[in-house]
Amino acid sequence: MSRARIRLATAVLASALAIGTLPAVAHAAPANSATVSRHHQQAQPIRQIPLQGAVNVRDLGGYRTWTGGQVRQGLVYRSDALSKLTAADITSVSGLGLTKVVDFRIPMEVQYDGADKLPAGLASTARPISDLGLYGTLVGAIASGDPVKQEQMLGGGRAEAYMRDIYRTFVTNPESRAQFAATLREIADGKQDPVLYHCTSGKDRTGWMSYVLLRALAVPQDTAEGDYLASNTFRGAYDAQVRAGLKQSGRMQNPDLLIPLQEVRQDYLDSATAQIEADYGSFYGYLTEGLGLDLRTLAKLQVKMVR
After folding, report:
1. How many helices (H) and strands (E) does the chain have?
2. Which of 116, 248, 282, 306 has the fewest CB atoms within 10 Å of its CB?
3. How far apart are CA 33 and CA 306, in angstroms?
4. Which tens digits make up the pLDDT trace of 192-249?
5. Is the pTM of this model over 0.70?
6. Count of alpha carbons within 13 Å of 3, Cβ hemisphere only?
7. CB neighbours of 24 closer than 8 A, spacing ≥ 6?
8. Looking at residue 288, what DSSP letter applies?
9. What are the φ and ψ backbone dihedral angles of 71, each rounded to 5 degrees?
């Protein structure tokens, strides 16, 4: 990308951040209000990559920004774990031309679920983000086979509270912020295209990463939220099968206790964004202060990702 475009984008970003907004691309002509309104009203496409061994794989491109730009396709992908890919899936993934895969799972998740299965010559980069022990808690609750213990651990709103706490730590935990920031810098750098990042279900850590990236690209907040919430659509049937299997096997009498952990919910996301307001005052304060992204990096992200 040209230095002139980056300098121009940086200058516009500096002005935009001062008033709490961020343009889609500094080199694009501003859209009029009618255009912006039209983009809000248009359906925003979600481009799923259909695989047998992973159900929540998507191209993050295609979304419109509030100034009339569009996020480029084929550059950034989000997914659930890639440890159960079939041979046909690996061929499909090979067709994406990935040069980097970032794995947000903690070691315990990799141990239980397995390492990513990837095309030859491609290896995952471990970039673990804390789940506050959720995975271990979940494994322990299921392994106990004790319905009373499971209710005590997950019932009565405890599972929902656990999820809200996890989302807050996306903002408050320095190590988590560093992992998200490193991924955004690599995307902005443009030397490793295309990039895929994932966790186990592709909905929480991956969902937050995608929400932050889309918002940084000036995709409207409601559209970024829609991308986040879409995990329920893509994961619903698979997660229901998991619950049915646990009930049939006798390991859980009430597998519906898992639903708050399996789903994404607006109030989970709101917990993180409220924490941003409390700690940094605005979303862009989180980008610049919390994640330590300077204006040049944000400008490079714009120039690279939005057309």
Report:
1. 15, 6
2. 248
3. 19
4. 689 999 999 999 999 999 999 999 999 999 999 999 999 999 999 999 999 999 999 9
5. yes
6. 0
7. 65, 66, 67, 68, 69, 217, 218, 302, 306
8. I
9. -70, 130
